[in-house]
């Protein structure tokens, strides 16, 4: 018990260390950075809709906003993309409507009782005040917020012919839009956790054209910056936010700098049922090439690219989504992009006429209590920290071997020369040589294999074909070598997540085949094996905390990730579940 008391005191000391990120944020080349230190800050966000008919953040009839904010943090997200309809700030009768009256007008009586019980402080305030309260709650929990103007008229989004897709549509008056952006930017000027404004979600429809995009996006961006110069200005493209290719030859001219970010969306259904009807290797190769051509090129041009929506059916039964996700996670890891998952929502008050609509893409379940799919949260956790970026040169540039199906990386097993999958925070540093050997950096060891079905191992004779790894297939995610100059095999995993070699899967046009276990991505990294950019500095911990820990256990790393610190305490005391 004495040990437990000591460790709890240390945890309290650590938890009250000031966060290392200073707001506001700016940009430096392709990175979003801390404005004071110029150190990269990776946005790992989740979407929290507040743009449907009630114009009230979803889920607040189920739980308090503070408890939801706390759970967002506990799942590893540092940011929320909070959606809002334009009419919230341009239609006075709507913005002044109380939360209670908004639900009454829609005949939604049951949520009123839930809001009264879980969030009584907002049930009788105006919709805009309730929106501010959600932002404030997120701020209290150190969650950054991106305000996303999702549409004009409250409701579900988006349809090609819904009249709310492009400048000049019946519900999309560009002058009113600029007015609304200005009001929202002004309202949150000085609210430090509001770090960005996304000017409009998924531009689309028969009226979309490049000239009007430049005309109005420039006006909107300048208006927001004038009203709130601290926030990032986030711009979407055309065709449901899939196409920014026109920026390649015609840059946007703005009067300000270091605030511009572009956003794109990518779902499995963005390509119809291609993931089901086509060979996954070929589809992944084609789609990633399309994405790099239409938006991914921006990182090479020195712009941050934010994947502000992606997501899958978290029941795990949608083959199209499952195959897409394996490809998507590989690309996001490779480019080390900022992102926002769709969605936090477990259920909606009202969506497309359905009360209590169950959102299968939601990370929370229908009751907003439990995670719908906890393994998914674990799987994306490696992408919540940056692999590299300004101010993150903790080690020399190296490769990590990322496995999209599991969200894990290739590690050396402590028992010997074999390898297995494990947390990417503990990843080995690999060097991929011009001779195509995968060498353990700083050693004479390289990855080798002897025959199909056997484990990949570390060896010292690295000149033969059994240690020469080629990236093959259209997906560029198969790592293949030849055994005896004849048999081609690919890196794979077995049922224990040990690294083996086996016959290469799905290299032909078979649409029934799934190569997911054999997809690996070589990812550039400069992060050390202790968990990204959320560090607790030794000097920041109280002298008492340092002294009692050293006296009790004899060690304390100069820099240690907070999550791994907690995990170490659990392992030291055998207190699984205590923290």
TrEMBL record:
Gene Ontology MF: a single term: hydrolase activity, hydrolyzing O-glycosyl compounds
Residue ranges of every copy of the Glycoside hydrolase family domain listed in the record: 64-344
Family: Belongs to the glycosyl hydrolase 5 (cellulase A) family.
Coiled coil: none
Endpoints of the signal sequence: 1-22
UniProt protein name: Glycosyl hydrolase 5 family protein
Stored InterPro entries: GH (IPR017853), Glyco_hydro_5 (IPR001547), Ricin_B-like_lectins (IPR035992), Ricin_B_lectin (IPR000772)
Organism lineage string: Eukaryota, Viridiplantae, Streptophyta, Embryophyta, Tracheophyta
Domain Ricin B lectin per the UniProt entry, residue ranges: 405-504
Gene3D superfamilies from the UniProt entry: 2.80.10.50, Glycosidases
Keywords: Glycosidase, Hydrolase, Signal
GO biological process: polysaccharide catabolic process
This protein's record includes keyword Signal: yes
Pfam families the UniProt entry points to: Cellulase, Ricin_B_lectin
Protein encoded by which gene: LOC107898648
Superkingdom of the organism of origin: Eukaryota
Organism of provenance: Gossypium hirsutum (Upland cotton)
